[in-house]
Amino acid sequence: MSHDQTEFAEFFQASWEPCLRAVVASTGSVSLAEDQVAEAFARAWLSWRKVRCHPAPRAWVVRTALNAGVSWWRRRARELPLAGHDPAASRDADDGLDAAVLTALRHLPDRQREVIALRVFLDLDTDTIAGQLGIAPATVRVHLSRAVTTLRCELSPSQAVEADR
Amino acid sequence: MNDHEELNDSAVLSAVRESVSGLPMPAAPRLEAITARGRARRRRRLGGLSLAAAGACAALVAGLAGGWGSAGPAPQARPTPQNRVPAIHLAAFSVVTGRGGATTLTLSPSQVVDPNAVRRALAEHGIPALVTANEFCRTAVQPPPGVGAVAEFSPQPRLVPSGSGRPPRPGLSVVIYGSKIPPGVKLSIGYRQDPADREISFTLIVAGAPLTCTSIPDHGPHPDDGPSGP
Q1: Which residue of A has its CA nearest to B215?
Q2: pLDDT tens-digit profile of A3-37?
Q3: For a Cys-Cys bond, which of A107, B110, B141, B157 suits B173, CB 3.0-4.6 Å?
Q4: Which domain holds residue A150?
Q5: Residue B212 vs residue A58, higher pLDDT
Q6: CB contact under 8 A, B38 and A45
Q7: CATH number, residue A155
């Protein structure tokens, strides 16, 4: 196995789970996220010489995975009023996802959800997120602030308090 | 932002983190599976490039077949069901033409399906199609003979692998009679790229006419609409 291959293998083993969690939080579906992350790692393998020099290779994978299913949430959000109920809560129950958090995340615009995923699950700082998304750090802070405000309204007070303990 | 708000922000982000962090995640697939997927992607890309370079000539069909890695020989003439074009079986979808000229398209519920690959596969089986993921396209005029005469849902969808050791699941199967599609008409096939919310919809469109695409199937106002179902 060449040095590049060994390096990619180590990156893949160490990064699979955090990347998957970030994409699960964004897509709301473990099975869908699993496929999108696998696709993103396949693309990372193809472009490993470029990705290995990226300032945040995990963020590259997450972004690529999210781009693979970018219209998914937008469509689900449009369907919500038609369905008259929240389909995510029931459909994703098998995945063990928290329905309240899932619904709250779904109500966020794509960009805000991306910022949340990169901040919360990859622990990226504002400047790195900005570089990854190609936007200004101030814009990242605005997205994060608005996302948190929306999530605070959506989540029940008891849940937020419990998580803060 | 004051300390109280900081605390609340932290609580909110913690709630999001906790909601996912406690979940058991599927184990990473084998590295070989990832690299094989990468190689397949590269082959598809190279197949597409050969298509662009060679232009619209019969030899291109051979290049496309090579791009998918299918084993069978490329068809020499315009593909028709009678020509017995080799079946295409990929993880994400399959296209099989059986006796009587009926072509069965099956989409896997658990794979991301490349609409361009589906379109090329159908073209190889003699079916002119517009294939879209997560959107459903139609033209203002629904041409004859009506989609009901051209395509129908398979009464017994094929089981397809779900991956990660899960049991096979029924795929989204559509039976298409390509020989009944008149010249200047295409079959528009839209599907949802979402394992939790499977749907496929199809209708006939006028080739080259302006399209109207929506994120959910438009079931009206045309009485001759294509069916839609899980």
Answers
A1: A75
A2: 778 899 999 999 999 999 888 887 777 877 888 89
A3: B157
A4: 3-164
A5: A58
A6: yes
A7: 1.20.140
